[in-house]
Amino acid sequence: MEQLVFEKPKSIRDDFKFSFCPGCDHGVVLKLVAEVLDELGVRENTIAVASVGCSVFLDDYLNLDIVEAPHGRATAVATGVKRSKPDKFVFTYQGDGDFASIGMGESVHTASRNEKVSSICINNTTYGMTGGQAGPTTLLGQVTTTTPKGRKVEISGYPVRVSEVISQAEGAAYVARVSVDNPKAINETKKAIKKAFEAQVKGLGFGFVEVLASCPTNWKMTPQEAHERVRGEMSEVFVPGVYKDISEGV
Prior knowledge:
This protein is an alpha/beta fold. It has ten helices and seven strands. The chain has helices spanning 26-40, 58-61, 74-84, 96-102, 104-112, 153-156, 162-167, 183-201, 216-219, 223-237, and strands at 46-50, 65-68, 89-95, 118-123, 172-179, 206-212, 241-245. Strands 2-1-3-4-6-5-7 form a seven-stranded mixed sheet, sandwiched between helices. Helix 1 crosses helix 8 (183-201) and helix 4 crosses helix 5.
């Protein structure tokens, strides 16, 4: 007798073509997003906002209504969508360069205004699609195409700790930093995405999840080495955890 052990989420397109680099974590996160949308029963009522960079491929994978935002403006576009259609479930999917560099102003003010939207930010410490330049989350000493001798404080300053910044916004209802470098972490990431999405469904306010992810291509590592870097060097600076959860009094 056959036993179904795995089923593709309905929020994933039937005809998707995998376009991410080998070892990239975007595919894992998108699958988790799709599973949560299915479980919450909001797929038919969702409008997602895609950003630039590797996140631009959102409509290649998700079976949803999706709009594309200019660089850094995803949360501003999401605000407009939600205010014009308050009955819709609205979320953004962005990289750290989009959310925390050009878009940091939009991101902070979206949280401060307590907009009833949700955001997922993939933190891989680099601009992945455009060639591996230094981004706002690039670690001190990290070699990139624009920091060939490693990021230095006196030139580039310190990396931005995105969850710590967003959690200070009074309007933020849920803020968490997670990773997808092992099965347990993947399960915790799904729980965090669900909590962030539920914050919107329940009308509590802005929900945010920062996902520590690997970029083996630009880090010039194998997928295994890249995940070891996430567990070690990255997690020591960007400490995983729940930074705000007003439903739990955190």
